[in-house]
Amino acid sequence: MARAKTDCYQIDGQPMLAPDAGAGFSFSDLDASDSGRTEDGVMHRVMVRQGVGTWGFEYAHLTDAELAYMESLFAGKAEFTFTHPKFGDSGAAETCTAYRSQCSAAWKSKVTGEWRNYKFNIIQC
Fold first, then answer.
1. Whole-angstrom Cα distance, residue 99 to residue 70?
2. Contact present, 106 and 122 (Cβ < 8 Å)
3. Which of 51, 25, 125 is nearest to 81 (CA)?
4. Pairing of the two strands 89-100 and 80-86
5. Are the beta carbons of 27 and 35 closer than 8 angstroms?
6. pLDDT, tens only, 13-51
7. Beta bridge mates, 47
8. Engineered SS bond to 83: which of 10, 24, 38, 59, CB 3.0-4.6 Å?
9. Range of the domain at 92
């Protein structure tokens, strides 16, 4: 059975394959290079950006064709536009510039052309 594409998550306007359990959202702050602790142990934090998004995607099983489709979305792209549901408002979508972290997968079978545990993160620029 072919995995469905979803418009909820798009790379440069092209739909991604629907992940197994939805994407995990996380957000972090970026500190300036001069942030850190002084010798007396006091933390001095200079935040330069707040709420940088990371979305984790996992696919338990993919065919050769499905894996090739997913990889084609990222091929040759250092950065891309990423459309995703807005955090806290499931009815709205947002688009940001992002990049993909390294991905991983396990090759299950040459005979069936099956891959397992395909995982990657999309990180907001």
1. 14
2. no
3. 125
4. antiparallel
5. no
6. 999 999 998 789 999 999 999 999 999 999 999 999 999
7. 31
8. 10
9. 5-124
